[in-house]
Amino acid sequence: MPLFLLIRHGENDFMKKGRLAGRMPGVHLNQAGRSQAATLAEKLTGAPITAIYSSPLERAVETAEPLARALGLEIGLSPALLETDYGEWQGKTLKSLRRLKLWRIIQTTPSLARFPGGESFAECQRRVCQELERISAQHDPKQVVACVFHADPIKLAVAYYIGLPLDHFQRLSVGPASITCLWLGEDSCRLVALNYELSLPLPKP
Question: How does 91-108 read in b/e, with b if 16+ C-beta sit within 10 Å?
Answer without folding.
Answer: eeeeeebeeeeeeeebee
